[in-house]
Amino acid sequence: MGEEGTEGTVHLLCLAASSGVPLFCRSSRGGAPARQQLPFSVIGSLNGVHMFGQNLEVQLSSARTEDTTVVWKSFHDSITLIVLSSEEGTSELRLERLLQMVFGAMVLLVGLEELTNIRNVERLKKELRASYRLIDSFLGDSELIGDLTQCVDCVVPPEGSLLQEALAGFTEAVGTAFGCLVVSGRVVAATESWWRLGTPEAVLLPWLVGSLPPQAARDYPVYLPHGSPTVPHRLLTLTLLPGLELCLLCGPRPPLSQLDPQLLDRWWQPVLDLLRACVPLGPRTLPAGFPLHVDILGLLLLHLELKRCLFTVEPSGDQEPSPEQRRRLLRSFYTLVTATHFPPEPGAPEEKVAALDYLHLKMCSLHDQLSNLPLEGSTGTMGGGSGGGTPPKRGGPTPEQ
Questions:
Q1: Does position 159 have pLDDT exceeding 50, yes or no?
Q2: pTM to 2 decimals?
Q3: Nearest Cα residue to 358 out of 327, 350, 200
Q4: Same domain, residue pair 278 and 382
Q5: Structure confidence by residue, pLDDT tens digits, 316-344
Q6: For labelling alongside 189, which of 74, 81, 133, 285 has CA 20 to 30 A away?
Q7: Where do the record's region annotations for Disordered lie (predicted)?
Q8: Are the CB atoms for 127 and 115 separated by under 8 Å?
Q9: Is 155 exposed, middle or buried (0-12, 13-18, 19+ CB in 10 A)?
Q10: Residue 152's domain is classified under what CATH number?
């Protein structure tokens, strides 16, 4: 089985569907951003063959050559995304989900209205630059896996219930129901309302925070691709410790100035030691001393009902193969089993795909080991928050708010 991401190049093209005008082109080589661009003639040919098929009522979705896989996908008859990958072991499933994440990122930062009603191509090109950093993180070798599983990457924090209480109290004090703690793009704890966010924003928001350069505080306008694709909301972030950020999703209020140091100290000073213990959980995801068999080199655990996942390739210290190789192997194994052995039937709803993913998890040789992990015991729950379906006390952010 080939290792996904082993050298090779990935090219991502975004075009206006009606005119075929390129909006941007992003590339990566060996998992790192690259400046290599495709010739305009190649871009035109790739888009032309797709449009030719549409005119004949034929949907061209993918093609494969000896060393390259190509996937096309149109969104709202307005945006066409094309991805070409020469990475070894790349599957169509991985590329299809990549395109879904890319379009979600575009909506998150630009809004659906600008993408479906293109009035000024040059202005749209400039606006889309804000999404480049996030999109590039999808093309590279990320430590996260939510782009593939479509579940939120989480960690298992120590004493998660105490962090949950502090988060709930703080969000209530500032007047929003949507809050979470994020370390390296992974959710440490979140409020009930945050967990009720739809896909893909539940995956994209922590990923966005993890992809941004360090900053003490941010007031970031975002759209919710599922919940509010045309009306922006505010994503407020505060750095509690280096690598650990507090995120709030809200409307016009509260202003960033209201989040003063005294309010932060009141709620977070009592749990400062717990916050410090969460910082190293970025790559490991499991707290020190977590009971895990020494022979497990990588772990992928999905809770498909809650749309959360735990992904780590560093549970056993410095052993071969390297963490990068383990990550590629585990991603490739997940993709292989999901796409090859349990392919979705044509026209099957997303629930069927989720059920097939669950069958994959059941057949995994680690099942017996995973069933004994105390993910909901005293150590803390995966990603914090309740696992039940209790409705939130406060409603989600709406255009009226």
A1: yes
A2: 0.83
A3: 350
A4: yes
A5: 666 678 888 899 889 989 988 888 776 66
A6: 133
A7: 374-401
A8: no
A9: buried
A10: 3.30.450.30
Q: Which amino acid is at 140?
A: G
What values do phi and psi take at 190, rounded to 5? -150, 155
Q: Is pLDDT above 70 for 352?
A: no
Count of structural domains within the chain: 2
Q: Per-residue pLDDT for 388 more than 60?
A: no
Q: Is the pLDDT of residue 293 over 60?
A: yes
Model confidence pLDDT, tens digit, residues 207-223? 999 999 999 999 999 99
Cα–Cα dist 132/145, whole Å:
19
Residue 349 has pLDDT above 70, yes or no: no
- 8 A C-beta contact, residue 179 and residue 384: no
87 three-state secondary structure = coil
Range of the domain at 133: 9-141
On whether both 243 and 164 belong to a single domain, the answer is yes
Sign of CA dihedral 90, 96, 100, 106: positive
For the packed helices 201-211 and 92-110, what is the interaxial angle rounded to 10 degrees? 80
Dist. CA 130–CA 94, nearest whole Å: 24
How far is residue 365's CA from residue 348's CA, in Å, rounded to a whole number? 27
Sheet holding 308-312, edge to edge: 152-153, 308-312, 299-303
pLDDT score of 256: 87
H or E element, residue 226: none
Are residues 127 and 185 located together in one domain of the fold? no
| Sign of the alpha-carbon torsion through 139, 145, 151, 152 | negative
pLDDT tens for 173-206 read 999 999 999 999 999 999 999 999 998 999 999 9
126, 147, 140, 25: which is closest to 87 by C-alpha? 140
